[in-house]
Amino acid sequence: MFAKIGRSLVFCLGMMLLIWGIYMPFVALFGTQGQGKITHVRRQGGDRAEAIRNRYTYMISYTFMLPSGELVTGHTQRVGDYFSPKHLVVGKRVEVRYFSFLPSAAVVDRSWGGVTENILVAAVGAVLMYLLGFQRKRTKKRKGTSHPTRNGDQNS
């Protein structure tokens, strides 16, 4: 029973990764364009301890206005060096892309690096779903095979 629950949870995780990994590039390419404003920039943690020294993760909060007049807030993360915040100034205008049916999932200043990351996330989700589906088919096939009887005769 716990194995079925675990497989279901991993399958759902794979599905969410696949949907998110496909949805965000579509927003970046085909979403409605709007103007947003950076409201807060915060460096999270210390040095990322990677091969390239002095790299930090920045949390960037922003707001933008929908044509209906509704104010939408969002956030994104960027990796940069110590001097990156000079480009991420509070009050700076940024390009925001969004779909009208889900404006809270918006993309700020799209880049091909971000699209590549999303495609990789979608691929991981697809692999998780495929592997769990493949395992389920394989176990069903095993249960349906015929086995010899105890006296050596084959089932007919």
Chart the SSEs and their pairings.
Layout: H1 2-30, E1 32-44, E2 55-65, E3 71-81, E4 93-99, E5 102-108, H2 112-143
Antiparallel strand pairs: 1-2, 1-4, 2-3, 4-5
Helix pairs in contact: 1-2
Characterise the protein shown here.
This protein is 39% helix and 31% strand. The protein is built from 2 helices and 5 strands. A hairpin with a 2-residue loop joins strand 4 (93-99) and strand 5 (102-108). Helix 1 (2-30) runs antiparallel to helix 2 (112-143). The protein is globular and about 50 Å long. The model has no long low-confidence stretch (mean pLDDT 81).
Topology pattern, helix = H, strand = E: HEEEEEH
Largest sheet features: 5 strands, antiparallel
What is the alpha-carbon Rg in Å? 24 Å
Number of DSSP strand runs = 5
Overall mean pLDDT stands at: 81
Structural class, by secondary structure, is alpha+beta
Task: Name the poorly predicted regions.
Answer: none
Put simply, the count of helices is: 2
- Helix % is 25-40%
- Side by side, the strands of the main sheet go 3-2-1-4-5
What overall geometry do the principal axes of the alpha carbons give?
globular
